[in-house]
Automatic annotation (TrEMBL):
Single strand-specific metallo-endoribonuclease involved in late-stage 70S ribosome quality control and in maturation of the 3' terminus of the 16S rRNA. The lineage of its organism: Bacteria, Pseudomonadati, Pseudomonadota, Alphaproteobacteria, Hyphomicrobiales. It is an enzyme of class 3 (hydrolase). This is Endoribonuclease YbeY. Belongs to the endoribonuclease YbeY family. Keywords: Cytoplasm, Endonuclease, Hydrolase, Metal-binding, Nuclease, Ribosome biogenesis, rRNA processing, Zinc. The gene is ybeY.
Amino acid sequence: MPQLDIQISVEDDAWPEEETLQALAERVIVAAAEHLSAMEQQPFPQQPIELSLVFTGDEAIREVNAEWRGQDKPTNVLSFPGFPLEPGGMPGPMLGDIIIAYETVEREAAELEKSSESHLTHLLVHGFLHLFGYDHMEIDEAERMEALETRILATLGLSDPYAGQDPIT
């Protein structure tokens, strides 16, 4: 079983209590890591790997998105790997950072007619997979990533978030 050290920072008071977010994040990230590990295509080091989760708001994520991606707008989740990693590559001791924006998560959950927790769970899995080099820039990459997300979410009791949609690009 992969060993993870999940560090959380809550920068926006709209988010639930840190303990609630920590419990959710641990459940979701451990499930995702176990699924990747069970695929036998994703090795994990013997020592714990560290992951940083930042729960912030739209304004803060907009600034990060503008600086690092050249897109001056809020987004739901951003992932920053500790170092470049291809799917199946061995992560180092610092896996990376995932940043999630409260207002965007809430708005999207309402639009999708899903609970905020279900949508947040999906975004945690999505961001975690990005840290392992999975992407959705090309159709084949998107199909691979979405299939993996769907399988991980099923282990958490959630339905396919992409049912009836074209692959994300």
